[in-house]
Amino acid sequence: MEMQAILKQLRESNHLTQEQMAMRVMVTRQAVSRWENGETQPNTETLKLLSKEFNVSINTLLGSPRQLVCQCCGMSLSEDGLISREVDGSFNEDYCKWCFADGEFTYTSKESLLDYLVSHMPNPDHLDEEERRIQFDSYLSQLKHWK
Description:
mainly alpha, two-stranded antiparallel sheet
């Protein structure tokens, strides 16, 4: 879905007029109309306001152009409900809600995350613990948080 349709759907699902939506994000009604007609797009600061005001990630507002992945554990962040939040409630699109919550990381070291993964993740290939730890470590080492 394109941004213009997403913004219109967001407005309509919240039972707002263009004027009401404009007031919530401090723009003119004409700006909202131009977004919905595809003539312009909200700037970065307005995207942040829309995200916070309507509880959707910026990635969702943009039509999900990026496949988000938690940069701590590698989990796909395919839905807004999986994305972590900052202390102020804004989305942090780099991490899942299990690795980062309320401004703090859950796993204080890669070893603690590896311990969790080895003991909780399925093992369909029946690998021994050390082999699994090596596989997980190899994958995690590619993520931003562990570089």
